[in-house]
Amino acid sequence: MAVFGATISYVLMMLSHIKLRLSRPELVRPYKTPGGIVTSSIALVLASIAVVAGFLVDPKVWFMAAGIYVAFIAYFLIFSRHNLVNGTPEEEFENIRKAEAEL
Question: Which structural domain, as residue segments, surrounds residue 82?
Fold first, then answer.
């Protein structure tokens, strides 16, 4: 199950990296990926192959792990996303600073 989670996570990270590079190319980044989108695309293909290879080795375990992940995603979509903290820590600190300044 850990391998399934790691490979799915890696696929999602590569997809996110490629999407962010294409949709927000002007965004300032403290770290530049060597090779940019090309390197991420190669990593995406390799991670996808790893997902398929893991499924071919033991499909039962992969289906069980996928079921657990689907349950977690459903929990997030139904309940958890409506109970998230509204602000970031920086915003909370700024609100506290403003409230203290008013005193």
Answer: 59-103
Per-residue pLDDT of the chain (103 residues), as tens digits, is 777 788 889 999 999 999 999 998 888 888 888 888 999 999 999 999 988 888 888 888 888 888 988 999 899 899 887 777 667 778 888 889 999 998 8
> Are both 88 and 102 inside the same structural domain?
yes
Q: Give 34's DSSP letter.
A: T
User: Locate tokens 């915003």: which residue?
Assistant: 91
44/67 same-domain check: no
Rg (CA), the chain: 20
pTM: 0.62
